[in-house]
Design brief:
This protein is of the alpha+beta class and about 150 residues long. Helices cover about 70% and strands about 15% of the residues.
Length: about 150
């Protein structure tokens, strides 16, 4: 069966505003599978964030310098934020694959490079981190834009 949604578009400029009601049709099964994927990835990322945060707080706390522990905590923090962003993608009125993949890849590159930097001591991994940050920004922009189209 198909799902028919009603999308209300509000157009405003200095002269007038207009509301339009547009029908939107999508196959229910396809929509649900995509939403489930983003939900699952968000939950996995959030769960891993808890594990990695606990690992940092308990196992690494006595072994790392305070600066390295702060880097680890930054990685966990951004992983959590973008786990919730993936949950938002799954609940958005329209699906945004671009936003979802930007958040997934951004987490892998941003947080992953920081985890690797701390665990290995290879400071060159820090060069990858900004690419992940740019993917986060692109993901938020894509999520915002999908709500306006």
């Amino acid at each position: 069966p198909d799902i028919v949604c009603v999308v209300v578009v509000w157009v405003y400029n200095e002269h007038r505003s207009v509301a339009m009601v547009l029908p939107y049709k999508m196959q229910a099964a396809a929509l649900q599978r995509r939403r489930n994927m983003w939900w699952t990835l968000g939950c996995i990322s959030g769960g891993l964030g808890v594990v990695l945060g606990a690992f940092g707080a308990h196992a690494l706390k006595k072994r790392l310098e305070p600066a390295d522990l702060a880097v680890w905590e930054t990685a966990v923090h951004y992983q959590f934020i973008h786990a919730f962003a993936l949950l938002a993608v799954s609940l958005a009125p329209r699906e945004s694959r671009v936003a979802g993949w930007c958040f997934v890849l951004g987490t892998l590159l941003f947080s992953g490079s920081l985890y690797g930097l701390v665990l290995s001591g290879v400071r060159k991994l820090g060069a990858i981190t900004p690419i992940g940050g740019l993917l986060f920004i692109a993901g938020w922009a894509a999520l915002a834009l999908q709500g306006t189209n």
